[in-house]
Amino acid sequence: MSNRTSPVGPDTDASVRSIALIGMPGSGKSTLGILLAKKLGWHFLDTDIGIQTRAGETLQQIVDDRGYMHLRTLEEQILLEVPLSQCVIATGGSAIYSTAGMAHIKTMATIIYLQVSVDQLQRRIDDYGQRGIARRPEQSFEDLYLEREPLYRHYADITVDCGEYSPQQMIKKLALALEG
Fold this sequence. Notes:
By secondary structure, the chain is of the alpha/beta class. The protein has eight helices and five strands; from the N terminus they run βαβαααβαβααβα. It is globular.
Protein backbone atom coordinates (compact mmCIF):
# COMPACT_ATOMS: atom_id res chain seq x y z
CA MET A 1 0.00 0.00 0.00
CA SER A 2 1.10 3.51 -0.70
CA ASN A 3 -0.30 7.01 -1.20
CA ARG A 4 -2.36 6.56 1.97
CA THR A 5 -4.49 9.41 3.18
CA SER A 6 -7.36 9.35 5.60
CA PRO A 7 -10.58 8.11 4.01
CA VAL A 8 -12.27 10.95 5.86
CA GLY A 9 -11.51 14.55 4.95
CA PRO A 10 -11.17 17.22 7.64
CA ASP A 11 -14.74 18.53 7.22
CA THR A 12 -16.43 15.31 6.16
CA ASP A 13 -18.33 12.87 8.36
CA ALA A 14 -17.17 9.29 7.77
CA SER A 15 -20.78 8.15 7.45
CA VAL A 16 -21.30 10.15 4.24
CA ARG A 17 -17.94 9.72 2.52
CA SER A 18 -17.95 7.29 -0.41
CA ILE A 19 -15.30 4.98 -1.85
CA ALA A 20 -14.37 4.85 -5.54
CA LEU A 21 -12.37 1.96 -6.98
CA ILE A 22 -10.13 2.62 -9.98
CA GLY A 23 -7.88 0.32 -11.95
CA MET A 24 -7.40 -1.63 -15.13
CA PRO A 25 -10.05 -3.92 -16.59
CA GLY A 26 -9.74 -7.20 -14.72
CA SER A 27 -8.44 -5.62 -11.51
CA GLY A 28 -11.58 -6.60 -9.61
CA LYS A 29 -13.38 -3.26 -9.26
CA SER A 30 -16.88 -4.66 -9.81
CA THR A 31 -16.42 -7.84 -7.78
CA LEU A 32 -14.73 -6.13 -4.85
CA GLY A 33 -17.06 -3.15 -5.06
CA ILE A 34 -20.14 -5.30 -4.51
CA LEU A 35 -18.50 -7.16 -1.61
CA LEU A 36 -17.25 -3.95 0.01
CA ALA A 37 -20.66 -2.27 -0.33
CA LYS A 38 -22.29 -5.30 1.28
CA LYS A 39 -19.77 -5.26 4.14
CA LEU A 40 -20.34 -1.55 4.76
CA GLY A 41 -24.11 -1.64 4.19
CA TRP A 42 -23.74 1.01 1.47
CA HIS A 43 -25.06 1.46 -2.06
CA PHE A 44 -23.08 0.06 -4.99
CA LEU A 45 -22.70 1.73 -8.38
CA ASP A 46 -20.89 0.24 -11.37
CA THR A 47 -20.35 3.04 -13.90
CA ASP A 48 -19.94 0.54 -16.76
CA ILE A 49 -23.47 -0.70 -16.10
CA GLY A 50 -24.66 2.92 -15.97
CA ILE A 51 -23.12 3.56 -19.39
CA GLN A 52 -24.69 0.44 -20.88
CA THR A 53 -28.10 1.24 -19.40
CA ARG A 54 -28.02 4.80 -20.72
CA ALA A 55 -26.77 3.80 -24.18
CA GLY A 56 -28.97 0.71 -24.48
CA GLU A 57 -26.03 -1.35 -25.71
CA THR A 58 -22.90 -3.05 -24.41
CA LEU A 59 -19.58 -1.27 -24.02
CA GLN A 60 -18.21 -3.20 -26.98
CA GLN A 61 -21.17 -2.19 -29.16
CA ILE A 62 -20.57 1.46 -28.24
CA VAL A 63 -16.90 1.16 -29.22
CA ASP A 64 -17.75 -0.68 -32.44
CA ASP A 65 -20.56 1.70 -33.48
CA ARG A 66 -19.26 5.09 -32.33
CA GLY A 67 -15.65 4.62 -31.25
CA TYR A 68 -13.71 4.56 -28.03
CA MET A 69 -13.82 8.33 -27.58
CA HIS A 70 -17.62 8.22 -27.50
CA LEU A 71 -17.40 5.61 -24.75
CA ARG A 72 -15.13 7.94 -22.78
CA THR A 73 -17.63 10.80 -23.25
CA LEU A 74 -20.47 8.65 -21.91
CA GLU A 75 -18.26 7.59 -19.01
CA GLU A 76 -17.55 11.20 -18.09
CA GLN A 77 -21.30 11.99 -18.09
CA ILE A 78 -21.94 9.10 -15.70
CA LEU A 79 -19.01 10.11 -13.44
CA LEU A 80 -20.33 13.65 -13.15
CA GLU A 81 -23.71 12.30 -11.97
CA VAL A 82 -22.38 9.85 -9.39
CA PRO A 83 -24.10 10.21 -6.01
CA LEU A 84 -21.36 10.53 -3.46
CA SER A 85 -22.92 9.58 -0.17
CA GLN A 86 -22.35 6.15 1.36
CA CYS A 87 -21.67 4.57 -2.01
CA VAL A 88 -19.01 2.21 -3.29
CA ILE A 89 -18.32 3.13 -6.91
CA ALA A 90 -16.67 0.77 -9.39
CA THR A 91 -15.44 3.04 -12.15
CA GLY A 92 -14.66 2.00 -15.68
CA GLY A 93 -10.98 1.48 -16.39
CA SER A 94 -10.83 4.66 -18.47
CA ALA A 95 -12.43 6.94 -15.84
CA ILE A 96 -9.00 8.44 -15.19
CA TYR A 97 -9.06 10.14 -18.61
CA SER A 98 -11.84 12.45 -17.39
CA THR A 99 -10.32 15.25 -15.35
CA ALA A 100 -13.77 16.66 -14.57
CA GLY A 101 -15.20 13.28 -13.61
CA MET A 102 -12.31 12.40 -11.34
CA ALA A 103 -12.37 15.86 -9.73
CA HIS A 104 -16.07 15.34 -8.97
CA ILE A 105 -15.43 11.95 -7.38
CA LYS A 106 -12.44 13.28 -5.44
CA THR A 107 -14.65 15.87 -3.70
CA MET A 108 -16.48 13.28 -1.59
CA ALA A 109 -14.90 9.88 -2.12
CA THR A 110 -11.73 8.13 -1.11
CA ILE A 111 -10.22 6.81 -4.33
CA ILE A 112 -8.58 3.40 -4.15
CA TYR A 113 -6.37 2.14 -6.98
CA LEU A 114 -6.57 -1.64 -7.28
CA GLN A 115 -3.11 -2.36 -8.57
CA VAL A 116 -2.52 -5.58 -10.48
CA SER A 117 0.52 -6.41 -12.61
CA VAL A 118 0.10 -6.49 -16.36
CA ASP A 119 0.99 -10.21 -16.38
CA GLN A 120 -1.74 -11.04 -13.85
CA LEU A 121 -4.27 -8.92 -15.74
CA GLN A 122 -3.49 -10.69 -18.99
CA ARG A 123 -4.10 -14.03 -17.26
CA ARG A 124 -7.44 -12.76 -15.95
CA ILE A 125 -8.70 -11.23 -19.21
CA ASP A 126 -9.29 -13.60 -22.09
CA ASP A 127 -11.59 -11.34 -24.12
CA TYR A 128 -9.47 -8.18 -24.51
CA GLY A 129 -10.66 -7.48 -28.05
CA GLN A 130 -14.35 -7.90 -27.15
CA ARG A 131 -14.51 -6.43 -23.65
CA GLY A 132 -15.50 -2.88 -24.59
CA ILE A 133 -12.28 -1.26 -23.44
CA ALA A 134 -11.86 2.43 -24.33
CA ARG A 135 -8.57 2.23 -26.20
CA ARG A 136 -7.08 3.05 -29.57
CA PRO A 137 -7.82 0.21 -32.03
CA GLU A 138 -4.15 -0.74 -32.46
CA GLN A 139 -3.24 -0.37 -28.77
CA SER A 140 -1.95 -3.48 -27.05
CA PHE A 141 -3.01 -4.31 -23.51
CA GLU A 142 0.52 -3.72 -22.24
CA ASP A 143 0.68 -0.29 -23.92
CA LEU A 144 -2.70 0.59 -22.44
CA TYR A 145 -1.47 -0.47 -18.99
CA LEU A 146 1.68 1.65 -19.32
CA GLU A 147 -0.41 4.65 -20.41
CA ARG A 148 -2.97 4.36 -17.61
CA GLU A 149 -0.89 3.26 -14.63
CA PRO A 150 0.57 6.75 -13.87
CA LEU A 151 -2.94 8.23 -14.05
CA TYR A 152 -4.29 5.70 -11.57
CA ARG A 153 -1.45 6.56 -9.19
CA HIS A 154 -2.08 10.29 -9.69
CA TYR A 155 -5.74 10.10 -8.63
CA ALA A 156 -5.41 7.45 -5.90
CA ASP A 157 -5.68 8.32 -2.24
CA ILE A 158 -4.80 4.72 -1.45
CA THR A 159 -3.06 2.12 -3.63
CA VAL A 160 -3.67 -1.54 -2.79
CA ASP A 161 -1.69 -4.38 -4.37
CA CYS A 162 -4.26 -6.97 -5.42
CA GLY A 163 -1.75 -9.63 -6.40
CA GLU A 164 -3.00 -13.20 -6.23
CA TYR A 165 -5.44 -12.66 -3.37
CA SER A 166 -8.97 -14.03 -3.14
CA PRO A 167 -11.87 -11.56 -3.06
CA GLN A 168 -12.33 -12.22 0.67
CA GLN A 169 -8.65 -11.53 1.35
CA MET A 170 -8.90 -8.33 -0.72
CA ILE A 171 -11.88 -7.09 1.29
CA LYS A 172 -9.79 -7.50 4.46
CA LYS A 173 -6.90 -5.61 2.80
CA LEU A 174 -9.23 -2.81 1.72
CA ALA A 175 -10.73 -2.52 5.21
CA LEU A 176 -7.24 -2.26 6.71
CA ALA A 177 -6.20 0.33 4.13
CA LEU A 178 -9.27 2.44 4.88
CA GLU A 179 -8.61 2.27 8.63
CA GLY A 180 -4.96 3.23 8.22
